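User: Let's play a game. I give you a shape written as tokens, and you guess the letters that built it. Ready? Here's round one.
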């Protein structure tokens, strides 16, 4: 990479001077050799700089896809406060941490029905397994 300059530069020892004739005018210029630009991954960390972080929010569309909901229904849940979200300017964003905490809190454990005898459940389960086994035997699986 080269930098073309007509001004003196601190790194004058790393430059070359060239003369060009453009449109009848003589132009003296210094061409400086510069190091190639580093990528963000190659750049050294600045002291006291925070560590690089990925995105910390989801879009409404991403949340709708994760929950298998329509976009309009997702916006309705956000506006009602059901899904934790923040409005930044005219745009809704959903903080990842709060979203996952909310999603974890939505888990509902099935309650045991005191009117159902556990032995009946075991019997029904055994009958279903037996029916599956008979079907497999009939179809050669």
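Assistant: Ready! My guess for every position:
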């Amino acid at each position: 990479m080269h930098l073309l300059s007509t001004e003196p530069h601190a790194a004058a020892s790393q430059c070359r001077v060239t003369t060009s004739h453009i449109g009848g005018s003589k132009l003296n210029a210094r061409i400086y050799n510069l190091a190639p630009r580093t990528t963000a991954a190659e750049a050294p960390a600045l002291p006291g700089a925070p560590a690089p972080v990925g995105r910390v929010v989801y879009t409404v569309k991403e949340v709708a896809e994760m929950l298998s909901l329509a976009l309009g229904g997702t916006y309705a849940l956000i506006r009602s406060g059901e899904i934790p979200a923040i409005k930044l300017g005219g745009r809704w964003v959903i903080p990842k941490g709060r979203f996952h905490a909310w999603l974890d809190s939505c888990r509902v454990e099935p309650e045991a029905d005191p009117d159902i005898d556990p032995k009946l459940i075991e019997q029904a389960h055994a009958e279903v397994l037996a029916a599956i086994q008979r079907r497999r035997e009939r179809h050669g699986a």
